[in-house]
Specification:
By secondary structure, this protein is of the alpha+beta class. About 25% of the residues lie in helices and about 20% in strands. A hairpin with a 5-residue loop joins strand 6 and strand 7.
């Protein structure tokens, strides 16, 4: 996607980066990044186009022009050195998928969530659980983040430990 010439939503659709979307009778568009770089480009496109973007469909339905950045395709395991007890995953991964992956190696995330919640949802809200008082909150377990920003950049904070 070349942001020097601002693409239209139909261009984004033809590139597979957007599709029409309907939520309770409100029609809008879903932005579908496959990488953090694409997410940054799409956020920048929206900012340059003067459009507001929501990160959950319920929030998008409240916007005048519903536009939702759907991170469902961002669910890859980037690295998982099992013996180091560290896993690097993208935020679109459902918690159930993470739990199953860790379980194959007799490991577990110390907090439990419904299987369908994505890691992005959990971290964005810093959702507590019954175990939170004893074992901390989800963000306590994050060592490194990669963040797509509205200016089209991807920033990294933290490091592999």
């Amino acid at each position: 996607m070349d942001l020097d010439t601002l693409p239209s939503i139909s261009t984004l659709k033809s590139e597979g980066l957007a599709q029409g979307w309907d939520f309770n009778g409100r029609s809008g568009h879903r932005l579908l990044p496959k990488t953090a770089g694409q997410a940054a480009q799409l956020l920048n496109w929206a900012q340059e186009s003067g459009l507001r973007v929501a990160f959950h469909p319920q929030e998008a339905a409240l916007l005048e022009e519903p536009l939702w950045l759907d991170h469902a395709d961002l669910k890859q395991v980037r690295q998982y050195p099992v013996d180091d007890f560290i896993i690097e995953v993208e935020t679109g991964m459902p918690f159930g998928q993470l739990a199953a992956l860790l379980g194959k190696n007799w490991q577990a995330f110390p907090l439990t969530y419904p299987d369908e919640l994505t890691l992005g949802d959990i971290l964005a809200e810093d959702l507590p659980t019954l175990e939170s008082g004893l074992r901390g909150y989800p963000r306590d377990y994050v060592l490194k983040t990669e963040l797509a920003t509205p200016d089209g950049q991807v920033t990294i904070s933290g490091a592999d430990v």
